[in-house]
User: What shape does this take?
Amino acid sequence: MTRHARLPQFVRDLLATVPHSGNGVHRWLFRVARHLHAHLPAGEIVTLLRNAVSNCGRYVPQSEIIDAVKNSLACAWQPSNDQASKLAVSKWPIINQEQREPIVRDNGGLVDLWELSTPRIEDSAQHAEDIIDQLFPDNPLLCCGRSQSDFDTRYREEWRGELARLQFIVPSVMTALIGKTQDGRQSKHTLSNTGARRFLVCEFDAGTIDEHAAILRHLAGYAPLVRAVFSGRKSLHGWFFVHGQPEEKVLKFFRYAVSLGADPMTWTRSQFVRLPDGTRSSGERQTVFFLNFKPMEATQ
Assistant: This one.
């Protein structure tokens, strides 16, 4: 049975009644996302909604769907029956500003994080190939893309020479070239062909880059931070090495990160994240400001 089939009947009914263009598609996305937060991680919600509106009569951009999922989180539906206590663990915490403010104040900024980098990148050359070699040794299958719709899964060596021009990567090794999506379609980018969690990425949108760096430095006291990359626009993404750690322990860490402003969408193992020292489709460089490969040495 698919996770979609296990959704409550009223939620499945909502998914089956997508309005036609001009009759409130945007409002429908927000409404359904509110109910889905109690049952699915954010990345799967985006996929489910994208498939649902594919024939609504207009092109619905990925950004519109992501915004609906993000904006509905603060007012996500909560069950009022006996299932409430069980489902509470799946609801991401809201940002704890009282806790966040002293962390931002006391942990420096981007320059301080950069100075802790070992090695420290001090030239203008692009290092995407070298960084990926360190993060994913031994020629594994990697899913990378120029966009959310233009991607491929290949062995690492087959990507050589192309990575600096790409903007997305799945932060775990893929287990097969092709998997099945939630609605049964074959694709090279699915949760079913994504392997065990290797890195957990904490992405911050709200606040300044210096604030993001301060929070990542603080979180590095709880899990090994191996990389921090600029999105090319406004956010800093931290890669934490969690290979082999119990999922319950990793989830506890990530819930804490979310309470400090991390985007919960990156919890989904197959979620695309910014490729280190890659290039956005608009041309901005995804600069790496922090590296520390030491935590991975024992596993290589």
In short: Residues 80-90 have pLDDT under 50 and may be disordered.
